[in-house]
DNA sequence: TTGATTCTGCAACCAGGTTGCAGCGATTTT
DNA sequence: AAAATCGCTGCAACCTGGTTGCAGAATCAA
């Protein structure tokens, strides 16, 4: 069994466990998300998967979001970025981490090892999600 | 001197001190931002200031942003929200605070007294700004 | 095989954001 | 005061990311 096939099998299992039928296109999208070094936008995926239509990518991402296979990050670039949830069976707030958006090269970095600090909300507010993005310059851009 | 005039004079002084010429329209926009109970979108301002054109509002906000009279919040609603900087002469990261976006009524709340927790970035990353938004249900919507 | 259901691609649409341009008013210069 | 200059504003058009309607293709069940 080749490495690719192993991954594919894992992806399939993951989708099945979340009640998402693993079609060919969905596996492609999942794989592209897995390959990506950083969170990607719909446009990035369109670029990477030239054979797949924008609306299909969009609907696939929506589906993945609903089933907690991925989460979205609003980095302020105007387009939402997506990345696979990496917690094993869950994608809770506690699982979330910090992101960094470079205002120069417009790349978004994941700081996987930097969890979102816990916050105490005022009485009555219920937290469902969280979006914590730092903006500035990445090392490459700061150097110039 | 009426209350309104006093405020107007303050607004003018504020703009002058930041190198922004206080035109009639700009004072209107500034005033609308001041009145608003929470961060507002361009659409909100358009609604509030029916006589002023969308593009003028947009350019005014851009100008205010550049001159640190206001800051923007990406709450994930799709449209950026703006609010006056309330620190006296500055609008630094340290001055920023947490926001809460209600997924039901789509309002954005300011938690003025909850500063953004300090974070230690990896070597080489330079922080210019920060966006920390909690999503969930506000007390009113949670009740239903 | 047939019928029902889901998935996908295409094209069109929508909204927020942005820009080009011309007119207007304020300001400065002569 | 008239002329030249400059910035501010409104209008209309545009762009881009996101979203939807629809019809054909693929999948699944009987």
Automatic annotation (TrEMBL), chains A, B:
Keywords: DNA-binding, Metal-binding, Repressor, Transcription, Transcription regulation, Zinc. GO terms for biological process: negative regulation of DNA-templated transcription; regulation of secondary metabolite biosynthetic process. Its cofactor is Zn(2+). It comes from the Bacteria. GO terms for molecular function: DNA-binding transcription factor activity; transcription cis-regulatory region binding; zinc ion binding. Zn(2+) binds at residues 102, 105, 138, 141. It holds the Pfam family FUR. SUPFAM superfamilies: Winged helix' DNA-binding domain. Belongs to the Fur family. PANTHER family: HYDROGEN PEROXIDE SENSITIVE REPRESSOR, ZINC UPTAKE REGULATION PROTEIN. It comes from Candidatus Paraprevotella stercoravium. Binds 1 zinc ion per subunit. This is Transcriptional repressor. The keyword Secreted does not apply.
